[in-house]
Amino acid sequence: DVKVTQSSRYLVKRTGEKVFLECVQDMDHENMFWYRQDPGLGLRLIYFSYDVKMKEKGDIPEGYSVSREKKERFSLILESASTNQTSMYLCASSLAGTGPEISGNTIYFGEGSWLTVV
Amino acid sequence: SQQGEEDPQALSIQEGENATMNCSYKTSINNLQWYRQNSGRGLVHLILIRSNEREKHSGRLRVTLDTSKKSSSLLITASRAADTASYFCATPPGGSEKLVFGKGTKLTVNP
Predict the structure, then answer these.
(1) How confident is the model over A71-92, as pLDDT tens digits?
(2) Per-10-residue mean pLDDT for chain A, 118 residues long?
(3) Which residue has better confidence, A45 or B27?
(4) Interface probe with A: pick from B5, B38, B43, most Cβ of A within 10 Å
(5) Contact at 8 Å (CB) between B46 and B66?
(6) What is the C-alpha separation between B106 and B24, in angstroms, rounded?
(7) Beta strands A10-13 and A113-117, pairing class
(8) In whole angstroms, how large is the CA radius of gyration of chain A?
(9) Per-residue pLDDT tens for B85-100?
């Protein structure tokens, strides 16, 4: 089974702190994602990485950066945390390719990291 | 940008009843997926339907896709209390590797 592991389940950080959310997947997936989920807004894509050191902005990248130095690890960085970044953060991964011979880009999620910025 | 929108936002039924959730999307797709999320947990993939398929079954799940109306439905038959969760549709806009999710339908199955 695919396993996507987010290092921290619950975090409380202070405004202005630099925050690292770590994610590791064990299935050699090319694609990795960071989403945030807020009540009434659903899941919104922050950043997407399709290969080591490659990244693409999602719908809400402002205030965030990412790092992918190794294929299995994708980190989300809040350079200076703010209270409006209090949210649940979901990491995910998938195989590359959308052809019918592939599984389709089914995405596998971690359990989520609840971040509170005070 | 929200590609998929689920309807209704919330649904409450009794155990044993069927639950139907709908999803509408905006652009052309090559597949549509449904995911489930238990409260406070990550999402779990349920089923994928490709653009050339009209209906697909998996256990008690039945998914339909109407590309002319840009809509899909998820039917859960003979629901159980354990089906209580939020359900999301997701699509890869323009054949992208990314998935864009709707806001979800919160299903409550009362015992």
Answers:
(1) 999 999 999 999 999 999 999 9
(2) 88 97 94 93 92 92 97 97 98 76 72 97
(3) A45
(4) B43
(5) no
(6) 16
(7) parallel
(8) 14
(9) 999 999 887 667 788 8
- Write out the residues of chain A at the interface with chain B, using a CB-CB cutoff of 8 A: 4, 31, 33, 35, 40-43, 45, 48, 50, 58-59, 88, 90, 92, 94, 96, 98, 100, 103-112, 114
User: What pLDDT is stored for residue B1 in this prediction?
Assistant: 47
CA distance A52 to B29: 27
> Which residues, in sequence order, are CB contacts of A101 under 8 Å at separation 6+?
none
Task: Give the 3-state secondary structure of residue A83.
Answer: helix
Contact residues on chain A for B90, CB-CB shorter than 8 A: 107
Please answer yes or no on whether B45 and A105 come within 8 Å at the CB atom.
no
Residues of B in contact with A103 (CB under 8 A): 48
- d(CA A73, CA B28) in angstroms, rounded, equals 32
pLDDT tens readout for residues B61-70: 999 999 999 9
Q: How many CB pairs under 8 A join A and B?
A: 66
CA distance A48 to A34: 7
Taking the Cβ of residue B28 and every Cβ of chain A, the question of whether any pair is shorter than 8 Å is answered with no
